[in-house]
Amino acid sequence: MTKYTDQGKQDTRSGFGAGMTELGRTNPNVVALCADLVGSLKIQTFIDENPDRFFQVGIAEANMMGIAAGLTIGGKIPFTGTFANFSTGRVYDQIRQSIAYSGKNVKICASHAGLTLGEDGATHQILEDVGMMKMLPGMTVINPCDFNQTKAATIAIAEHEGPVYLRFGRPKVANFTPVDQKFEIGKALMLNKGTDVTIIATGHLVWQSLIAAENLENQGISAEVINIHTIKPLDDEAILASVKKTGCVVTAEEHNYLGGLGESVSRVLSMSHPAPQEFVATQDTFGESGTPDQLMDKYGLNNKAIEAAVLKVLKRK
Amino acid sequence: MPNIQELQDLVTQVRRDILRMVHKVNSGHPGGSLGCTEFFVALYNEVMELKDGFDMDGIGEDLFFLSNGHISPVFYSVLARRGYFPVDELNTFRLIDSRLQGHPTTHEGLPGVRVASGSLGQGMSVAVGAALAKKLNGDNHLVYSLHGDGELQEGQNWEAIMYAAGNKVDNLIATIDRNGQQIDGGTEDVLPLGDVAEKFKVFGWDVMEIENGNNLEQVISGLKEAKSRTGKGKPVCVVMTTEMGNGVDFMMYTHAWHGKAPSDEQLETALAQNPETLGDY
């Protein structure tokens, strides 16, 4: 089992903020917009260093998306920032018409995604955003797993021409990917080679998958762990190569099983290599208030749930 | 610069284009298009500073955004006759494989269009963003936009209106087509807009009115006046009163022709009221 070390827990949103700080210093076309959540999005340094390239739009997300679309006309690369719920569902039609259909180079950066926003409850937790965004033609969908990867992804998407949805979270989680790891959009990362089962995870569930794989190894089960940071375009080749070898798969994500990474993986497999699959995801439900750990436990989104799903899928091989 | 008679001839020809486009495919929105013909002709031929050719960024020229995208016929006709694409292409309006989609879009790469519109209420925000980009780029050119009055019922407009005033986006001229009509009836019956000019004023805009938006000279002088008010710390709003269906007697004073094409016979009558000037496509 490949060993990964937590370099110290950090929130992925701070990875976004660190990426923005760097972009502010290196790419003069990058501009940032925020809908009254600067502190939550961790972009104060970008603002302090580039006040003329920051637009505070107030609590008006629809207008933010439209302004971002307009800013691209003239060569700017706008990064919008608000919670994932207000970055997607609230403004779906603005994104659809003014950004996606219009082919605008806007980076929609969404914090506090999934259940781990915690105590604010279901009004602020979104478990449908990946589905909504991946259905938009031309939209790239990225859900990095830790601080380092979120920072790298933030920097990488500035170089990508076209609309991007970048999803990250609120809680402090293990930071374990290499600090200098190159972020390649659409390229899956093999974290652990295995032979019995493939675990395909995204976001906060990647670290949980590594813990599960270690526990499984102690039971004599060899789990391959793949970090899918880019849900669209999906790395079909990496998924197929692994599942052809292991013969079964568990997908793990902090999202509804409808519309998420799991369904994308199912599509790839059903078209060329059908295999048993279990979904570690929320089961078509809203969230609720609680601590992140309590919620992930209650909704079956942690290493224990992944382990159980692996044992289940192995029986179906 | 064309003289006023040449522009008036263009207005008549554009009206013919609109009528023939919607008639051919038996769909589209002639009413608002006919009502805004003078505005488009004036804007593209007398008011805006435009470069030759088209590039998306539009640095070093004025930009225009059509928010009420359903009046695409007038937009397409004026763009074609300004040289953005061949006039013959108007023949493909709303047909399969056409760049002239029912509502304007960048998706098929039609020169002159910089954002998709049709789902209402989004154009003001986009225009504000483009105006901000001009400021960041040190580009002194202006951004123009057009909005239907009924469209102001969409809340996003008021977010943008608040933003533009609060952030002194003074290189923006937003024109409201105050024709008083929308699909289901008069605007004041469907959802009263009240005093549009006053609403913009209290939001902090510099507001002026064009009393007769179907009088070409009034539109030209009004838009030039609007231009002179830019750069003074406030976005500029032009409330322009028009008559939906203007130029065709049986299409006026009603909302009936908002989204309806004329029959063969009606087309003949309508075209007779707008005799060919510059040549049909």
Automatic annotation (TrEMBL), chain A:
SMART domains: Transket_pyr
Pfam family, one: Transket_pyr
Cofactor(s) demanded: thiamine diphosphate
UniProt entry tagged with the keyword Glycoprotein: no
PANTHER family, alphabetized: PYRUVATE DEHYDROGENASE E1 COMPONENT, TRANSKETOLASE-LIKE PYRIMIDINE-BINDING DOMAIN-CONTAINING PROTEIN
Keyword Plastid: no
Protein keywords: Thiamine pyrophosphate
UniProt domain Transketolase-like pyrimidine-binding: residue ranges: 10-175
Family, per entry: Belongs to the transketolase family.
Protein name: Transketolase
InterPro entries: PDH/Transketolase, THDP-binding, Transketo_C/PFOR_II, Transketolase-like_Pyr-bd, Transketolase_C
TrEMBL record, chain B:
Cofactor requirement: thiamine diphosphate
Record domain Transketolase N-terminal: where: 10-268
Record has Nucleus as a keyword: no
Keywords attached to this entry: Thiamine pyrophosphate
Cited Pfam families: Transketolase_N
Keyword presence, Cytoplasm: no
Family named by the database record: Belongs to the transketolase family.
PANTHER family listed in its UniProt record: TRANSKETOLASE N-TERMINAL SECTION-RELATED
Protein known as: Transketolase
Organism expressing this protein natively: Flagellimonas flava
